[in-house]
Structure formats: C-alpha cells, structure tokens
Amino acid sequence: MKRILQAAASVSLMILSVLAVAGCSRRVEASTLKPVAADASTVVNVTAKSFRIITDVTDNIPAGKITFKVSNTDVVTHEMLVIHAQNKGYELPYDFSISRVFESKIDKPGEVPDIQPGTSGEVTLDLPPGRYVLICNLTAHFQAGMHTMINVVAR
Ligand SMILES: [Cu+2]
Question: Which of 49, 62, 25, 76 lies closest to 148, judged by CA?
C-alpha cells in the first residue's frame, strides 16, 4: 500500500513539472509579443457634438502613429483638421471675411473631411512631439467653439 502511494505521488510530481514547463513557455511567447503592441497606433476617439470637438484624451499622447476616430453626432456636417500649433494657444491665421482658418498658412498633418451627420471617419497620422489643435474649419464652426488641443510627447 505504501509503495502504491509513493508511485502515485511521483506521477503527480511529474504532471506538475510538465505543467510548470508549459506555463513557462507560454510566458516567453507573451513577452515576445510586446514590441508589436508598442508599435501599434494610439487611438484617439473624437466626437463632434453640439458644435464642440470632444476627445477621450486625458493625458499626453506618445509620438508616432495616432489614429483619430471621429464621430459626428450633430445634425450638420463637420470635419476634423489636425493642425500643428505654432504657439501655446489656439491662435491660428483666420480669414474673417469667410470665417475660416487660412489652411494655406497652417501646418496641417491631416484631416477627416466631410463627416455627415450620424456618421464617422478616421485618419492615421505619424505625428512628432508637439502641440496639436483639432478643429472643424467649416464656415464659422471654429469661431463657434469647434476646437481642442492635444499634447504629443516623445516615447
Ligand atoms: Cu463643424
């Protein structure tokens, strides 16, 4: 009887060590996936709502590929421009005769144009560190308050 118990104990030890080895190899696989995750783009969710540009950003964004997913929940068409700010504020060259920012005088890495009411669009940009203003530049929308700022920092 004692011998049977000893045999049973050694079999369970063998099973335990096989499980331990399997557990280790799984951990190694997980760590090799890390560089892929770090290289993926950061997603910024943007909502155009009540003539405001609202983001889910609560902190600085790491530089590199950033995907802006823009939803328009208003009943009018909007757009979203990503503008590299030249200063700390929202001051942008503005043409008061047409109530729009001069797009020829700004550094604009990209945009999501013509977002119809109730639809969404997205753009992925490779952004270096800096301050960026997100605006809607349809007539008078910037003046109405459609702008917000994000801060992109070195990884
Ligand atoms: Cu707009």
Answer: 49
